[in-house]
Design goal:
312 residues; alpha+beta; five-stranded mixed sheet
Length: 312
């Protein structure tokens, strides 16, 4: 602007032009900076308020993986979700899910990772954990909008007379495990489970429920059936026998061999599977710790966190 004035009016000398330029720099840049700071303040205010509101909204309703699986396994719930999505948005359920996924912020994901893990994840599992949290946020939002709520989680207490167990008097934690000796993740978790049992000996009651990977295959249920038989016959040796079961090293002279001997225990395995499926168990290992559900293989660090979070 000062240059244009100098060019248009040759009568304006250099000193006048410089004076004008100085005035513009002094006040023009000041106005510019004022507006810049003003808009940055508005943006930050909106961003943090939105993030905080989103955090509070989801914080009160963030469903667990198992709760979401239970709801999505219900055909009536799926029908309600599809109808709602089509009527309100004109979309398919999968399309709505993808749109909601785009709205999830890193702020929310980080918040829930900190809230639930109470520690630092190894780098190699952090991204997987972030995606798991993102998925839970998405389904929580969708289910909340449709008005679908999970049923209250009740602590499963198996019959100690028929279910393999380690029972202590006045336990601090009661843990129920659904697993199978043919499951590689269960096998991976098994030695870590033993470590936490030993570390908190006398404070944990532990129940072992059967959940065969091949529930309709008698051969697939074989080792779970043998395990139930061995526990009934040799309860004091059961803990050491479990290691052999995972290694498939059980020998035939232990009295759990013939079909007649195993038949009643096979029935118990099938019953465990049906009951587990009915309450929402879909994958193994699955644990219920003082009523809280955890799905997947656990290492010692994960167990420590889980016990801390479920401590009475």
């Amino acid at each position: 602007m000062p240059i244009l004035i100098v060019q248009i009016s040759g009568k304006i000398d250099l000193e006048t032009g410089l004076s004008f330029l100085s005035f513009f720099c002094k006040f023009g840049w000041g106005i510019f900076l004022f507006h810049l700071i003003f808009y940055i303040a508005i943006f930050c205010s909106l961003f943090f308020c939105s993030a905080e509101n989103a955090k509070i909204e989801v914080l009160n309703n963030l469903y667990s993986e198992l709760e979401i699986k239970q709801l999505l396994s219900d055909s009536e719930v799926i029908t309600s979700l599809k109808d709602f999505t089509n009527e309100k948005y004109g979309l398919g359920l999968e399309e709505w899910k993808l749109k909601e996924k785009e709205k999830v912020s890193d702020f929310e994901i980080t918040h829930f990772i900190k809230l639930e893990s109470k520690g630092i994840f190894p780098i190699e599992v952090l991204e997987k954990e972030r995606e798991r949290i993102r998925t839970r946020i998405v389904w929580t939002r969708i289910l909340n909008e449709v008005g679908v709520k999970p049923k209250p989680s009740l602590m499963v207490i198996p019959d100690p007379n028929i279910v393999p167990n380690i029972i202590v008097k006045n336990p601090k934690w009661t843990i129920v495990e659904w697993s199978d000796y043919n499951c590689s993740f269960c096998k991976k978790s098994f030695p870590e489970n033993k470590k936490i049992q030993n570390r908190y000996e006398g404070k944990i009651s532990w129940y072992y429920l059967s959940f065969p990977l091949e529930p309709d295959n008698k051969e697939g249920r074989k080792y779970l059936t043998i395990a139930r038989c061995l526990w009934k016959k040799y309860p004091e040796q059961y803990e050491s026998l479990q290691t052999q079961l995972y290694k498939k090293e059980i020998v035939n002279h232990l009295g759990c061999v013939t079909e007649k001997e195993l038949a009643p225990f096979d029935e118990l395995v099938v019953k465990d599977y049906k009951k587990g499926s009915a309450i929402g168990v879909r994958s193994i290992p699955t644990f219920q710790i003082n009523g809280r559900w955890i799905v997947g293989a656990m290492d010692l660090q994960s167990w420590e966190k889980a016990l801390k979070q479920t401590e009475p």
